[in-house]
Amino acid sequence: MADSSSMEKGVIVQDTPVSPTDSTLEPPFDRAAERRLLRKLDFRILPVLWILYLVNFIDRANIGNAKIQGMEKELNLIGQRFNISVWVFNLGYLVAGIPLQIAFKKYGPKSLCVMMFCWGITVIGCGLVKRWEQLVVCRLLEGIAESAYISGCAYLIGAYYSKREYLTRFVFFCTAGIIAGAINGFVSSLLAKMDGTAGYGAWRWIFIIEGCITIFISVAFWPLVPQFPENCTFLSPEDKALMLARVKADGGHVSDDEITFKKTLGFLKDWKIWAGVAMCLGVTENANSLANFQPTILKGLGYTATQAQVHTIPVYLTGAAFSVIFAYMSEWLQRRYYFYILGWAVLVAGLAVEIVYPPNPKVRYMGVFFIASGCYLAMPVSIIWVSMNCGSGYKRAVAIAAIINFGTAGAFVSSNVFLFKETPRFHTGFSTGLGLACMGATAATIYWYGCRRENKKRDQRRAEMPEVLDESMKELGDDHPDFRFAL
């Protein structure tokens, strides 16, 4: 029998071990106990994934920093050769993203460290290449190795948290990528001083040292990466019982879900996933442009290479603060569409400044702040908003992978419209970014209207059904009559 002190905490202590897949707890849960559980999850899950993503983004974006530290000249990156080296990374994402996400769901979160170890090797390879063709191959392999990392982390976060808590946690996770942009500039400016050491140029040391750090982190963090909820070991039996009950009631994780090729294709027939792809693509294209070309853009404002690296730092820090503040507001108000549009509006303002190209470089520098802030708010909203509306289990995993990996197709565009001959104005690049951003806003509006209309239809149909239904949410997912789409 449960003692009274345990009951006051909102959990029941049993004499027998807690089943990893079941719980006697039912909602509504004790709010004080939930708050204590959330603090434990926040301090145990988010910092680990945050650090890993920090390293991930540094490795992905360091090619932009290496370019202005001598790589362009040494590898003879004439014409569109640098752009090819940039977009081929995203080809790896498209090819391997969904298959590796399914592997992540099947084999568990420790696979994130395996991915990290593999891409660390490819980053070192980028620093050892002799020809630009070799750089292209290394970047392709790096993209393949990284393709399921962000989507895997997004799924893992959603496995532990409810829908109401999902967005802010993912945005906090995404700030690692934003901060990485700032750190990249600072670290690259320091590594630039190693120019000539052991006969290697500064750009080579950027890749080699950051790749070695990646491999070290992947090994060191292996025991720290949390397992899926049913296998977690860092919670007490009481907290684990509450956590599993919350997952069962509102989570997006199903431990015994099965997947087949036919089911995967069935998931991808859902129009909402492709609306999410369009939303993500519209802003990701601009985010990728910022990561890969910002040092070049800032150098075009009159800064030296080192000054350009340093001036990327406040841009990323501002974007991180903006995204966190408004993500919290979105979650508090339980509104996603309005905040996606807010991010889009700020992004468009920044793009307009760069397209007009005012003569004052300080004004153009201000436009870069607007681009970063808008991208880093709208991008996570598009991913989490759609994924939480895709039920649970493998469908959510496939949805996240599709949105992130097909959404990165914007990099194919950005890497081919930021033309070398237009440096530093890049009129074609910014104009294309504006068009894609408007496409994303249109997709978001259609998605919001469609989900709102479907909710009204379900409300009407549900009133004609029995109060208790035979079908379970686990079996039907977002097709269940009681499922309502977040707006």
What can you tell me about this protein's structure?
The protein is an all-alpha fold. It has one domain (38-229, 261-479): Growth Hormone, Chain: A (Up-down Bundle). Helices cover 73% and strands 0% of the residues. The longest helix has 36 residues, at 427-462. The relative contact order is 0.13. This is MFS general substrate transporter. Keywords: Membrane, Transmembrane, Transmembrane helix, Transport. It is a multi-pass membrane protein. The chain crosses the membrane at residues 41-58, 78-100, 112-132, 170-191, 203-225, 313-330, 337-357, 363-386, 398-420, 426-449.
Care to count the β-strands? 0
Number of helical stretches of at least 4 residues? 19
Principal-axes shape call? globular
CA gyration radius, whole angstroms:
23 Å
Provide the fold topology.
Layout (H helix, E strand, L loop, with lengths): L3 H5 L22 H14 L1 H29 L6 H27 L3 H18 L3 H15 L2 H12 L2 H29 L10 H19 L16 H14 L10 H7 L3 H29 L5 H29 L3 H20 L4 H27 L6 H14 L2 H8 L9 H36 L10 H4 L11
Helix pairs in contact: 3-7, 3-8, 3-9, 3-12, 4-6, 4-16, 4-17, 5-6, 5-9, 7-16, 8-13, 8-15, 12-13, 12-15, 12-16, 12-17, 12-18, 13-15, 14-15, 14-18, 15-16, 17-18
Keywords: Membrane, Transmembrane, Transmembrane helix, Transport
Pfam family, one: MFS_1
Protein name: MFS general substrate transporter
Label this structure with key terms.
globular; mainly alpha; Growth Hormone, Chain: A; 487 residues; disordered N terminus
